[in-house]
């Protein structure tokens, strides 16, 4: 929500946005909501979109997608209404996508819902796909991606955003080669060299 405000988008020297997360209560306040500020570094493609919006919208307008209002409460209502409209549009688009093309099942369910009890959070699809792209780009470094994009710990990132895909785990396992020819299977010497048997060398 906060990145809709011009003063929360920084182009130089590094493109970044300040994002306000109201689900995490840390004593910061923005538009009548308590939460926490995060600094995030979007892609260059996102930068191009924001720059286009800057060029087309009135320079004196504080918010990118709606006119300024007299009170923080009124501003929050405008932001909420805008996000709701976008969520409805995105959900309609996502529902027509080939489900097999989605990054993982957790992402699909979170964006569209389970079809019974959970309606989904379509706007969060971008956060989920971003997490998957950043994880892949960093060789699935949960700690690095969590610190880069605003997760308080790796547990949340791993549990809610898909974590390391099974095929990556399989690739890692298949890349490890055990040298069985170095194992000492003599029952007498196993007492003293048993460590090398249960923790064989890796080449």
TrEMBL record:
GO terms for biological process: DNA integration; DNA recombination. InterPro entries: DNA_brk_join_enz (IPR011010), Integrase-like_cat_sf (IPR013762). Gene3D superfamilies: Intergrase catalytic core. Keywords: DNA recombination. Coiled coil: none annotated. It comes from the Archaea. GO terms for molecular function: DNA binding. This is Phage integrase family protein. It comes from Candidatus Nitrososphaera evergladensis SR1. The lineage of its organism: Archaea, Nitrososphaerota, Nitrososphaeria, Nitrososphaerales, Nitrososphaeraceae.
């Amino acid at each position: 929500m906060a990145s809709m405000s011009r003063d929360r988008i920084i182009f130089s020297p590094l493109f970044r946005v300040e994002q306000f997360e109201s689900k995490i209560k840390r004593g910061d306040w923005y538009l009548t909501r308590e939460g926490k500020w995060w600094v995030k570094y979007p892609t260059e493609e996102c930068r191009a979109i924001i720059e286009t919006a800057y060029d087309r919208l009135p320079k004196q307008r504080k918010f990118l997608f709606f006119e300024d209002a007299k009170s923080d409460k009124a501003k929050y209502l405008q932001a909420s209404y805008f996000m709701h409209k976008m969520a409805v549009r995105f959900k309609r688009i996502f529902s027509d996508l080939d489900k097999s093309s989605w990054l993982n099942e957790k992402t699909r369910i979170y964006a569209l819902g389970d079809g019974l009890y959970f309606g989904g959070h379509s706007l969060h699809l971008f956060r989920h796909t971003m997490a998957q792209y950043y994880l892949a780009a960093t060789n699935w470094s949960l700690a690095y991606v969590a610190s880069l994009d605003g997760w308080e710990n790796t547990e949340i990132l791993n549990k809610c955003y898909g974590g390391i895909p099974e095929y990556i785990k399989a690739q890692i396992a298949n890349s490890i080669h055990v040298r069985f020819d170095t194992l000492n299977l003599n029952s007498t010497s196993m007492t003293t060299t048993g460590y090398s048997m249960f923790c064989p060398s890796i080449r």
